[in-house]
Amino acid sequence: MSENKDDAYLKQVFVTQTKGFKDVTTKHEIWQEVANEFDAELKVSHTTDNVFKIFRINIPYNNLEIKLSESDTQPLKFEISFTSILDFELIIGIEDSIDRLLKKLGKKELELGNEEFDKKYLINSHNPEITKKLITQDIIEGFIKSEVYSFAYTSDIKKQTSNLLSVISRTIEDKDKITDLIRLHMKIIDNLKGLKIVE
């Protein structure tokens, strides 16, 4: 991993760690409605000590599965596995004070031409041209609207596999917002396939 990729990955790992207890039981009805809308099954499980609750929904889309999960101690996450065609990596995360300081000191960063998005997010990619084609204006707007905290698409071209992991704010408590996030990830899948990044 490059230094930039390591930093972004560590940020993403950090945000998924326990940030206090937030009872997801109150969201059970919302998650069930989301599962019903997408003809999927809501799976509810508990940790081995039966203390924390975990919600999971796997939504089939375009020969893939969009996997959603959230628990009492983990934020809403989306995960999608692909068969990759192209060696491509992209990490997007909310800028912190260190990132802003590095920018002032001259650190170059990729920008997509949307002032609100570029101010909020730091983008790391070794292929700016493909990134700009992948992250279209409707996806940019979806990121801003849907409180996406971080997004990582990584590939292992030798194994022809790739993985997408998005981490969302823990404040999402609305069915329509979860539905919008699912449709956002469907657009990303469509663009990944359209650009022949994945099969």
Topology summary:
Blueprint: H1 3-15, H2 28-37, E1 42-46, E2 53-61, E3 64-71, E4 77-83, E5 90-94, H3 97-104, H4 115-120, E6 121-125, H5 128-134, H6 137-146, E7 148-156, E8 161-168, H7 175-194
Antiparallel strand pairs: 1-2, 2-3, 3-4, 4-8, 5-6, 5-7, 7-8
Search tags:
199 residues; 37% helix; disordered N terminus; alpha+beta; single chain; eight-stranded antiparallel β-sheet
Q: Could you explain how this protein is built, in words?
A:
- This protein has 199 residues and is of the alpha+beta class.
- The protein has one domain.
- It is 37% helix and 28% strand.
- It contains seven helices and eight strands, in the order ααβββββααβααββα.
- It has helices spanning 3-15, 28-37, 97-104, 115-120, 128-134, 137-146, 175-194; strands at 42-46, 53-61, 64-71, 77-83, 90-94, 121-125, 148-156, 161-168.
- A hairpin with a 5-residue loop joins β3 and β4 (77-83).
- α6 (137-146) packs antiparallel against α7 (175-194).
